[in-house]
Amino acid sequence: MLLLLACTTPSDTSTPAPDTDETATDTGETDPDPDSAVDTDTAVDTDDVDTAPDTWRSALYPEDWTPAFTDGEGHFLHDFSYAGYHAGEVAIPTAPGASFDVTAYGADPTGVADSTTAIQAAIAAGSAASAAGGGAVVDLPAGTYRVDGLLSVGTSGVVLRGAGSTSTFVYFTKTTGVDYAAHLTFGGAVVQGADHLLEVDGEARSHDVQVADVSGISVGDNVAIGWTISDAFVDEHGMTDTWVSFNGDWKAFFRRTVTAVEPGTSTVTLDVPLRYPAKMRDGASLRVESGYLTECGLESLALSNAADWASAWASTQVHVALFSEVQDCWVRDVVSFASPYPGDARGKHLMSSGIEVLDSRRVTITDSVMEEAEHRGSGGNGYLFEISRSNEVLTVDTIARGGRHNFIQNWDFGTSGCVWLRTTSEGGRSLLADWDPVGFEAYSEFHHSLAMANLIDQSEATDGWQGVNRQGESSGAGHSATQNVWWGLGGGGYLRSLQVGDGYVIGTDGLEVHVDPDEWDWNDSGEGTAPEDWTEGLDEAATLDPPSLYEDQLGRRLGE
Question: Which fold would CATH assign to domain 72-190+291-376+385-397?
Fold first, then answer.
């Protein structure tokens, strides 16, 4: 269950405390005569004994921190508290609508017969009910369901719910025609309106943008703020001849909701601040959006799409579940399981990849586990929890094990404000081909262009995490990260933070940390990332206060 409103009480220190062997006790005055009776005035006052370990605060997160705080050298931490379902302001619902039992539509809980048509029929019935108002739950009772086709949800308010991740099992068998797709898709159909050009550069951490014309913009509208990947933008980041895939294209960097419109000043106020400067030079503009799928969920079941080994390696980028163009949706208590596919699945869970969130915002993934991919080779395979072109996605209390890049931001510009809280990454490995049983270690990472202002919080990685200049890899990913924060990361793995501009490593536990841009010669992954990223409290994560930056910021914003 996800509880995200707790606020950690700040300590009394504003900078890391030095190591000390001194014990803080109030002994009063000692009696010079050891044979005399103990005077009550000289006894240890146990009420005053400080038995708690010393804690420390980041210099960038003092007790009186506000989102405007900046140190004397221009360093600051973004407010990450907007991540997740409804920005963490309300709990994920437990009973969002009328129930539609898939077995009533002919689904076979024994796994013998194909249940594709029956489950999709239940989804259609639930979708009709939800469209009429009130939402709908498509229930999959305990059992095993074989799905030989694809499933999709295209109506807001529909939740697919099993009887629990140890009771309801759904396995997909389709191995052809699934490249760059998913066996289960929740998909909206977003349409963007005309450009409202900014008439003043948008400032990072500001809720306001000033546009040339506010006509057609209303409070409550969903909007995208973006700009063109211009030659000047590319050159500003030292990425000429590297960022080549999207040059000249307008990209939605920030997906927001309008909270106020002031016609007199042409100012539009947004629910979440900008994460990066939006410059008129690059044609920065605001576009009204419609068509997001909302209030949808996937919960309380286990999924698998692993098939025979050869088919898995003949396919590419096959996800078991995809959330595309959605807002305020969730994944809860969803795990992968060893496929019962009768072919050569070798005990694996997934053909290639697990759950992807694409072109979306304010999604929560909680209490879930994805593991054991078959195809972990090049070309975008083996990504267990993948986020692309999305904002304010919260991944919490979640485990990724035995993928290639277990947690990953991938492909294109436009990922920011996402939080990975209390996640665990284990056993990330890249395989060279279907005949390679060993491969080499791979990490959770920022994989593509300029993921900005994301937070990895109170998490563990026995393999590693990284954000570096990937140069020409992945069709010119180049600088993959800026202004991202690792906060309290442990697990004994590897951390490489080589971010363009500023990056932050605050509180680690047993990690091998690398932040020196000149240290890395392989593929020049530190090129253009000077100055060295901020580090603070290495191997002192256990006493970092607050333990979770996201939860503390959320508590502050909500007044908890």
Answer: Pectate Lyase C-like (2.160.20)
Residue with tokens 């595309």, as numbered in its chain: 324
Single-letter amino acid code for the residue at 226: G
Instruction: Give start and end residues of each alpha helix (H) in 384-506.
Output: 473-476
161: amino acid identity, one letter = R
**CATH class of the domain comprising 192-290:** mainly beta
Tens digit of each residue's pLDDT, the chain (560 residues): 334 333 333 333 333 333 333 333 232 333 333 333 333 333 334 344 444 569 999 999 999 999 999 999 999 999 999 999 999 999 999 978 899 999 999 999 999 999 999 999 999 999 999 999 989 999 999 999 999 999 999 999 999 999 999 999 999 999 999 999 999 999 999 999 999 999 999 999 999 999 999 999 999 999 999 999 999 999 999 999 999 999 999 999 999 999 999 999 999 999 999 999 999 999 999 999 999 999 999 999 999 999 999 999 999 999 999 999 999 999 999 999 999 988 888 999 999 999 999 999 999 999 999 999 999 999 999 999 999 999 999 999 999 999 999 999 999 999 999 999 999 999 999 999 999 989 999 999 999 999 999 999 999 999 999 999 999 999 999 999 999 999 999 999 999 999 999 999 999 999 999 999 988 666 789 999 999 999 999 999 999 999 999 999 999 999 98
Distance CA(358)–CA(224), nearest Å, equals 15
With 0-12 / 13-18 / 19 or more C-beta atoms within 10 angstroms meaning exposed / middle / buried, residue 64 is: exposed
Exposure on the CB side of residue 416, measured as CA atoms within 13 A: 27
Cβ atoms of 359 and 389 within 8 Å: the answer is yes
Q: Which of 456, 458, 476, 453 is nearest to 466 (CA)?
A: 456
> Alpha-carbon torsion 460, 407, 396, 455, what sign?
positive
In the chain the first and final C-alpha atoms are separated, in Å, by 19
Domain boundaries, the chain: 72-190+291-376+385-397, 192-290
> Exposed e or buried b for every residue in 207-244, given b needs 16+ CB within 10 A?
bbbbbeebeebeeebbbbbbbbbbeebbeebebeebbe
Q: What is the pTM of this model?
A: 0.90
Distance, in Å, from the CA atom of 194 to the CA atom of 285, rounded to the nearest integer, reads 9
d(CA 207, CA 186): 30
